[in-house]
Amino acid sequence: MDIMEGLLTRRSIRKFENKPVPEAMVKQILEAAMMAPSAGNAQPWRFIVVNDRKKLDGMAGIHVHMKMVTQTALGIIVCADLSKEKFPGYWVQDCSAAMQNLLLAVHGLGLGAVWTGIHPVEERLKAFKEMFNLPEHVIPLGFAPIGWPAQQLKSESRFQDDRIHYNTY
């Protein structure tokens, strides 16, 4: 799949087959995530690979939009280590770029995923910090349940001319 096809066909997958994801694929996904741009090349991201069934099932109870996690083989939490920031506050952009790379890599490998947000919802932040024993300076941005898709979603163009402005609003 070429890059444009990947960008135009990636969809959020919320239904998964009961099949393991090979460790080599997980490494490829993380390598792609770490190739994201970051402010000052600080690369403040940290990743928690969650493949413990009890933890995955427990996550469904702390986030209303994470019920699908009970079907997945694994998931990855994208976090920011604030002690690694060169330009304070840019961690959200840095980690969002890493998450998007992660999602595209998942799609390119024939897997499925969905970005479930954690930051900036205080209850979610607190719950994830506790469940995963995160230090004070590490902030979870989002979680991506990952697995073999059990659904095929049609991609339709979202291009809208009225959203584009040239040289001024």
Automatic annotation (TrEMBL):
Domain Nitroreductase: 8-57, 82-148
SUPFAM superfamilies reported in the protein's UniProt record: FMN-dependent nitroreductase-like
Keywords from the UniProt entry: Flavoprotein, FMN, Oxidoreductase
Superkingdom as given in the UniProt entry: Bacteria
This protein's name: Nitroreductase
Species this protein is from: Pseudodesulfovibrio nedwellii
